[in-house]
Write a structure and sequence with these properties.
This protein has helices spanning 2-30, 37-67, 69-76, 95-111, 116-132, 153-162, 172-178, 184-202. It is mainly α. The chain has one domain (2-202). Helix 2 crosses helix 3 (69-76). Pfam families: FA_hydroxylase. One of its GO terms (molecular function) is iron ion binding.
Length: 203
Amino acid sequence: VKAQALRMAGLNWCWLPFALLFASPILQLRFVRETPAQWWWSFPAQIVASFVVDDVWFYAYHRYLHEHPKLYILYHKPHHVFTAPCAWTSHAVHPVEMLLQSIGTMAGPLLFAFSLPQLWIWMALRQLQGVLDHIGIDCPFDPLHYIPGVGGTVFHDDHHRVFTKNYASCFSVIDDLFGTRYHPEESELERVRGEKAAAASVL
């Protein structure tokens, strides 16, 4: 399974740049080439809003895949053969899941009427965020790291270890809202309580 996941990652890293290149003529039909000056003032806020829109969608379909075993095995399990992921494995995803991810990625730009240059900036930032989520450490140069409510790399690493917690890709506050946030200290407390209960039952 791990070899299959690595092949998926390799294929996705190879074909995605070409897919974007060949999609350019189609994108130009929907996204204007020029960016009016006033658009740039609101662009940083729109980028953050696009991350929120994308992550709400990511949380929804991601949790759905985890909670339905057949779908999980078919479309998401290859990504989870890596309990300690690295940058390369950020793209170790099934084509169906890649399609699902793309819906969230394009939702913000369509909703906020990005220009073509703004779309490319957004795509680059979204790819960077996905890679940084899988490198194993919280990078100080990650711009999202300083936004309140962002989980970071360790947050997503915990998802790869625990599986049924931390479904959001970026904003840990989403998991807080739905009660799926992983709290290591609570898990340790539950373990200690379990050991004490087991010891008491022996006595």
